Amino acid sequence: MKIAIIGGGPAGLYSAILLKKQRPDAEITVYERNRADDTFGFGVVFSDATLDNFEKYDPPSYRRITQEFAYWDDIAVHFRGTVHRVGGNGFCGCSRRGLLLILQERARELGVTLIFEADIEDEGRFADADLVVIADGINSRFRDKYIAHFQPEVDLRSNMFAWMGSTRPLDAFTFIFQETEWGPFIAHAYQYEAGRSTWIFETDPETFKRAGITGLNEKQSAERMAEIFGWFLEGHPILTNRSMWRNFPMIRSKRWVKDNMVLLGDAKATAHFSIGSGTKLAMEDAIALADAMQRAPTVAAALEQYEQGRREEVEKTQHAADVSLVWFEHVDRFWNFDPVQFAFGVMTRAKAITYDNLTLRAPDFVREVDQAFARQVRAKGFDVDVEKPSAPMFQPLRLREMTLVNRAVVSPMCMYSAREGVPGDFHLVHYGSRTLGGAGLIFTEMTCVGRDARITPGCTGLWNDEQQAAWRRIVDFVHANSAAKICLQLGHAGRKGATKLMWDGMDRPLEEGGWDIISASPIPYFPDSQVPREMDRAAMDRVKAEFVAAAERGEACGFDMLELHCAHGYLLASFISPLTNQRTDAYGGSLEGRLRYPLEIFDGLRSAWPSHKPMSVRISATDWADGGITGDDAVKIARAFAEAGVDLVDVSTGQTVHDSQPVYGRMFQTPFSDQVRNEARVATMCVGNITTSDQVNTILAAGRADLVALGRPHLVDPGFALKAAAWYAAEGVFCPPQYLPGKEQIFRNSERERQEFEELKIKAKPKTRAELKAEATKPLAAE
Ligand SMILES: Cc1cc2nc3c(=O)[nH]c(=O)nc-3n(C[C@H](O)[C@H](O)[C@H](O)COP(=O)(O)OP(=O)(O)OC[C@H]3O[C@@H](n4cnc5c(N)ncnc54)[C@H](O)[C@@H]3O)c2cc1C
Ligand SMILES: Cc1cc2nc3c(=O)[nH]c(=O)nc-3n(C[C@H](O)[C@H](O)[C@H](O)COP(=O)(O)O)c2cc1C
Questions:
Q1: Whole-model pTM?
Q2: Which residues are near ligand 1 (CB < 6 Å)?
Q3: Is 463 helix (H, G, I), strand (E, B) or coil?
Q4: What separation in Å is there between the alpha carbon of 138 and the centre of ligand 1?
Q5: N or C: which terminus of the chain carries fewer CB neighbours within 10 A?
Q6: How far apart are CA 529 and CA 508, in angstroms?
Q7: What is the pLDDT of residues 268-291, one digit of tens each?
Q8: Position 37 pLDDT exceeds 90
Q9: CA–CA dist 307, 234 (Å, integer)
């Protein structure tokens, strides 16, 4: 077998090593355009898990790599004169040059031919090769040559960064967030060998411009960094090696394989440097390719297996990198945060690290985070314990004169079980049992303001006395039996009206018994859905009056709070999104025009709703569709409602058009809540695939939302909040007296279970290489 590898970086060299081990008879050649020791960059970083992989696949190179490694366990966050350190991270660094020299040596030893100063322009010279590995890096010539086939998508990010080095020793992965006269600068720094550390400097484009870096050469820009971070460098210089300032390109390729050619490493996909995964991804690609070549009967089958098997893992890493890079791009959102909350945000930015996980590793740090959170709550006039505070989920919140005893919320969920809009026994038991389960706030399902405002024949309404009496019974139950508050969500289905019950076909038009529907514009939801009538002024006035009348009935029922549903493609959302609003009058066009009618309704409700009671609005913060609402629009929408007097923005997403492309995942809508809360400076509630109390606390403690709603988890577990309270030993949680023996038992058991769980977790956790190294070098105690 003949294998040609274009590019002698980590991907090219490691694939040469693994393939040669597998097929000693194969003729494998690596072509590298640079000289053997002519490499750029400073250090590379691997996690312990990645090193475990290297150990398994090629022990000799693993041993040589790890002999030269610098190890550290801590992440240190420097911000506004403070430093917060968190241990237990298990990272290692080595020099990129050292890594490549080790890989070159190992490849040669195995019989791989390495040809340097060979700049390959045309792969035609490898016509006789069975496999051509394209590992030519981020600016891959061959990916671009076959651009129509590989279909790379290059997202050039806005922040500027430069890779530099220093002699400053470091004992932790160090983030420094530095305020300057021009704006914030960030340093990501770590040691990779004795007396050498990598320094990646990053800043936003405006700060970059203001700091005048555009006009500086490499040496001058290094000097500027040395001035900015001089207080930390303690006289150590900043070093350069082709350290040009650039924008990071996030690259994703639709295809990785063409005939017998396969893309590896940066050529195929990149991951932002803030999660330190570029070299790791490149080498793990080589592992995946070697695995596939081992298993599959032919090269073609192996390449197919490589692409299919590897894609998910790469996309997951890229997603984590995306989330992380967005955090760094918007660091100014958090600049006014308490430093410990800021540090918590840095630690938890990419989802893998959470509140519970940090409690295990750095209990003092989490205690400090809790205390800072409690101090903020106390500043709002609550008499909460600041020394030994409850977890954020169990801290109270006040909206106008409504006080919530905790921040766990039952999200609005249609039960499709009403008759003529009247909630029945099912609803009483449904809302009642969630109320008894300890949540601080319960939302009603979308309750419709008129018969023809319903989504389905099973939706609840509030347009007549019978419905009012039925809701009153539910509200009274909540108030009589719990500390929870209950919020009425009012809505109008718009073009998604006259559709089937969820279990008969979500959003599908009714075949019989339907009614005429209205919307901002006459565009059906599905091509075969009913075409809605475009609302004229008379219809707008009628619907507004219906909303106001329903709100008045809501007040008569005793609801504590009112939410206006402006999300999910229903009537008011259909005005806001440009995908569903094509009006040419004052209610269409610009975002201002599209918001006009929803704001008119909101104003009508705000006037009718008692001024001491809060109001929220639910929005779709993105349509997940080209040309639709984006996170930046959501900030403007939130600001407009905040100016109109909204107390909380309930940040959901999507469901505007049937062919949207949501990116699901854990807590997938939380970044939008984060953006709205910290850019529009308005309280938010987040929701969406949040399933554990650990996630709830992570979100709250990091300042990404003020309340957290859970929908589906509450469907199967009405006692979600009470159980979470037991886990966090939040004694103050409300429990109905009838259930107190159960509360006492679960609190008792949880304390023991939590202790056992933590001990198990600590025992099961393998020692990090940093810990092992520290143990090995520890002087023996005198006997
Ligand atoms: C300037 C720079 C500095 C970096 N510094 C760091 C750092 O300090 N720490 C870190 O973790 N990551 C760093 N990275 C990122 C990291 O190196 C990559 O994520 C990782 O190296 C990807 O490995 P790769 O093998 O896919 O590509 P690369 O390491 O880029 O290797 C590709 C190789 O292909 C060669 N090549 C390209 N075209 C041809 C051709 N036509 N013919 C022959 N050879 C060709 C290149 O010379 C290069 O050696 C740096 C990247 C760059 C560009
Ligand atoms: C059965 C069901 C009914 C729903 N009905 C409503 C509703 O009436 N109003 C609303 O705003 N959202 C509604 N939603 C959306 C939820 O409030 C929530 O935003 C969504 O389920 C994501 O949260 P989760 O992952 O915690 O379930 C509904 C969701 C489900 C599962």
A1: 0.90
A2: 6-12, 31-34, 40-45, 96, 118-120, 135-138, 141, 163, 198, 242, 265-267, 278-279, 282
A3: coil
A4: 7
A5: C
A6: 7
A7: 999 988 887 789 999 999 999 999
A8: no
A9: 48
